[in-house]
Amino acid sequence: MEATITITVDGRQRTVAVDTRTTLLDALRDRLAVTAPKKGCDHGQCGSCTVLLDGRRVLSCLALAVAHDGAEVVTAAGLDNDRLRETFLDNDAFQCGYCTPGQLCSAAGMLDELKAGWPSAVTDGEPTLSASEIRERMAGNLCRCGAYVGIVAAIQEAGR
Amino acid sequence: MTGMIGTALPRRDGPAKLHGTAPYAYEHDVEHPAYAHLVQATIARGRVTGFDLSAANALDDVLAILTHENAPRLEDTGNAELAVLQDDAVAFRGQVVAVVVAETPETARQAANAIQVTYDSEPHETRLRADDAGLYTPEKVNPALPTESSQGDVESALASADVTVDEVYTTPMEHNNPMEPHTTVAHWDGDRLTLYDSTQGVHPLRSAVASLFGLDEDRVRVVAPYVGGGFGSKGQPHAPVALAVLCARHLTGRPVKLAITRQQMFSLVGYRTPTIQRIRLAADHTGALTGIAVDVVEQTARVKEFAEQTATPSRSMYAAPHRRTGHRLAELDVPVPSWMRAPGECPGMFGPEVAMDELAQRCEVDPIALRIRNEPELDPDSGKPFSSRNLIGCLEDGARRFGWDARDPRPRTRLEDGWWIGTGVASSTYPVHMSPGSVAEIRYTADGRYEVAIGAADLGTGTWTVLAQVAADRLDVPVDRVELRIGDTDLPNATVAGGSSGVASWGSAIADAAGAFRDKFGTDPAAGDEASGRTPDLSETFAMRAFGAQFAEVAVHADTGEVEVRRLLGVFAAGRIVNPRTARSQFLGGMTMGLSMALHEQSVMDHRYGHVVNHDLAEYHIATCADVRSLEAHWLDETDEHVNPLGTKGIGEIGIVGTAAAVANAAWHATGVRVRDLPITPDRFL
Ligand code: FES
Ligand code: FES
């Protein structure tokens, strides 16, 4: 069964017919040719598909497209945060780059959560932009190239 | 020379990757693609007796279902891993028995799930045992090394030694799991085949596909400008690429996209064999080795042999007059093992480097001093001099940086906040490779740039950046005047990105082309001037290896057994470093994967059914951001003019070698518990 939805992707309004089984990730990649979000597992286990959905970081492989009619989606391509890109480049916070769009969206979402005072499992008192907070909060974005050291440094620098 | 070699240039492909616009295999713009989904065998051994396709065929939008009954015949079925859908035999659970192509990915998956397959099962064996009656000695081990080596009389040395170690160490089955699942987009257009593929080598893949389908190579084009990691699993062609091409041939004119799922990666694209390593060391009371024996048992697949060279690093590490190494294989009903980051060296430096720690303990010698005491003058295996060997320099520099001197050698002496804390060390090594056959072309353009073309691959290794640096340096021009082109068989031939050989093989070809260009055209070329160069032959005069030392600080929770790697520090001697920024990432990335191997990685086979039960990223654990605390990589300035014209030794793999041993040794120092089987999980300490 198909349904037609309208979503805003990186500031552009897009109307698209989707199979009701289509995930937001597949709607973006297969139907709209928006390929910044990556598919690493399709099961909510790796973070490669992270986008900002109505301002919050979500795993787009776990969202059904049809459930998000009218939503605003920001991918790494449209992310308005060149500072993060700069610090990622400086710290060589990626190698193959496949997890990177997800890392960037997740980092942007995470910095907002931290600013809003949301605690994490390692928070003791007021959450701060410490390396251990970043490591904990970014633990859902796997990087098989092992760029974590650079990722943590980049986020800490960008968040200052 | 502009001095570009040695400069920490930021990644040139950075902006594209940081906007998510760098196209990986699935993402190339093709018109009106169809989508394929695989059907896998649910038995480990036997025959397919029939298919019920009615439910699948009843779905709208199913374009084709291929099985062995209707799939096109392949020209060359010599590589049984690639000879897909050619007969009814099932050689391992997860083997592909059918493939569906549909208008949408949702329908392809639904139809694949709706196919009923019936089988005739036969008894299977998937368990690796050191006492398997069917163990055999392979003719050679990967890539073409002798299976056995022997000098002197190791049994007598063991019998008469002051001190011995005789222990068995094991490493589990492990899966590469690059973040980008293996993907092929195949398009037959008239009589030309184009593949967008996640591959570590466009030219080797083209050769494989051309011979599989009986095509002239010039009718096949493979494109792979960006690859989302490989770690060896995209180095050799595997079944999915053959299946994508079969589908595209069947639907001529229509591009077919086949992206396998994370779960399918656990049976179709290679893995590291489990290993059982019996290590025997003989030494005098000062720790000077008199004998080293390494006997490895590992598995291969009934459908195709792969023999990991696990015992080979021990042939060159330490001096001892009496020594032997050997490999024995069990042929099982399992998926085909293959390359995974530092095949041979990675598992093969776990057992021996923990055994060295045990020897240090028994001789009451410092583990670093023990290694220095056993430094060979010549390569013990070949008798050749080393082109350069700075293991001792790495150990000493690392000890200083890590603060090794303050260490109390006794285990289980530091308990802080409920955690036992200890430190450990292990050596790293990796051979220097350079593959013959790469060609580079340099062309001067009308707007004053140098176009450098070679079909090389960048899997995150930094190729886009470092090859441009090599060209700029050898042409003596600023790097922004170099335009590099890679990842396409329309470009000159390049060898596979494997064996840490990329910069040596491709970079040397570029250096040769740059020399030829300047010889021919001087410093004032005209638009259109071009020259080419090739990879030179590898020297046979020397033994050539990179070395390193890794230091770990490990904390083990006294009550729960939880293991944390609090600090990991590596020092490497790997020849000249072309780009310190990307090189550091290669070392750190390798060490991170080594930490992951030490603490987490293990593919658990359910031997009743022959499949990996933890076949996804929720249950096959890899290191996450939260696992990696203090991690440092350093290197020595090492000049080696013998390895290749650039003086590089290769850095993509050595970082993972020795890490797990350093962690295991530190865990012993923390707790007094010697873990000889990876991974080092909490239950070992309780
Ligand atoms: S693709 Fe969505 S979490 Fe992995
Ligand atoms: S950069 Fe390759 S997976 Fe993160």
Automatic annotation (TrEMBL), chain A:
<dbReference type="Pfam" id="PF01799">
    <property type="entry name" value="Fer2_2"/>
</dbReference>
<dbReference type="GO" id="GO:0016903">
    <property type="term" value="F:oxidoreductase activity, acting on the aldehyde or oxo group of donors"/>
</dbReference>
<dbReference type="InterPro" id="IPR052914">
    <property type="entry name" value="Aldehyde_Oxdr_Iron-Sulfur"/>
</dbReference>
<dbReference type="InterPro" id="IPR002888">
    <property type="entry name" value="2Fe-2S-bd"/>
</dbReference>
<keyword id="KW-0479">Metal-binding</keyword>
<comment type="pathway">
    <text>Alkaloid degradation; nicotine degradation.</text>
</comment>
<keyword id="KW-0408">Iron</keyword>
<dbReference type="InterPro" id="IPR006058">
    <property type="entry name" value="2Fe2S_fd_BS"/>
</dbReference>
<dbReference type="InterPro" id="IPR012675">
    <property type="entry name" value="Beta-grasp_dom_sf"/>
</dbReference>
<dbReference type="GO" id="GO:0051537">
    <property type="term" value="F:2 iron, 2 sulfur cluster binding"/>
</dbReference>
<keyword id="KW-0001">2Fe-2S</keyword>
<keyword id="KW-0560">Oxidoreductase</keyword>
<dbReference type="GO" id="GO:0046872">
    <property type="term" value="F:metal ion binding"/>
</dbReference>
<dbReference type="InterPro" id="IPR036010">
    <property type="entry name" value="2Fe-2S_ferredoxin-like_sf"/>
</dbReference>
<keyword id="KW-0411">Iron-sulfur</keyword>
<protein>
    <submittedName>
        <fullName>Xanthine dehydrogenase YagT iron-sulfur-binding subunit</fullName>
    </submittedName>
</protein>
<dbReference type="Pfam" id="PF00111">
    <property type="entry name" value="Fer2"/>
</dbReference>
<feature type="domain" description="2Fe-2S ferredoxin-type">
    <location>
        <begin position="3"/>
        <end position="79"/>
    </location>
</feature>
<dbReference type="InterPro" id="IPR001041">
    <property type="entry name" value="2Fe-2S_ferredoxin-type"/>
</dbReference>
<dbReference type="InterPro" id="IPR036884">
    <property type="entry name" value="2Fe-2S-bd_dom_sf"/>
</dbReference>
UniProtKB/TrEMBL annotation, chain B:
<dbReference type="InterPro" id="IPR008274">
    <property type="entry name" value="AldOxase/xan_DH_MoCoBD1"/>
</dbReference>
<dbReference type="InterPro" id="IPR036856">
    <property type="entry name" value="Ald_Oxase/Xan_DH_a/b_sf"/>
</dbReference>
<dbReference type="Pfam" id="PF02738">
    <property type="entry name" value="MoCoBD_1"/>
</dbReference>
<dbReference type="InterPro" id="IPR000674">
    <property type="entry name" value="Ald_Oxase/Xan_DH_a/b"/>
</dbReference>
<dbReference type="GO" id="GO:0004854">
    <property type="term" value="F:xanthine dehydrogenase activity"/>
</dbReference>
<dbReference type="Pfam" id="PF01315">
    <property type="entry name" value="Ald_Xan_dh_C"/>
</dbReference>
<protein>
    <submittedName>
        <fullName>Xanthine dehydrogenase YagR molybdenum-binding subunit</fullName>
        <ecNumber>1.17.1.4</ecNumber>
    </submittedName>
</protein>
<dbReference type="InterPro" id="IPR016208">
    <property type="entry name" value="Ald_Oxase/xanthine_DH-like"/>
</dbReference>
<dbReference type="InterPro" id="IPR037165">
    <property type="entry name" value="AldOxase/xan_DH_Mopterin-bd_sf"/>
</dbReference>
<dbReference type="Pfam" id="PF20256">
    <property type="entry name" value="MoCoBD_2"/>
</dbReference>
<keyword id="KW-0560">Oxidoreductase</keyword>
<feature type="domain" description="Aldehyde oxidase/xanthine dehydrogenase a/b hammerhead">
    <location>
        <begin position="19"/>
        <end position="123"/>
    </location>
</feature>
<keyword id="KW-0500">Molybdenum</keyword>
<dbReference type="InterPro" id="IPR046867">
    <property type="entry name" value="AldOxase/xan_DH_MoCoBD2"/>
</dbReference>
<dbReference type="GO" id="GO:0005506">
    <property type="term" value="F:iron ion binding"/>
</dbReference>
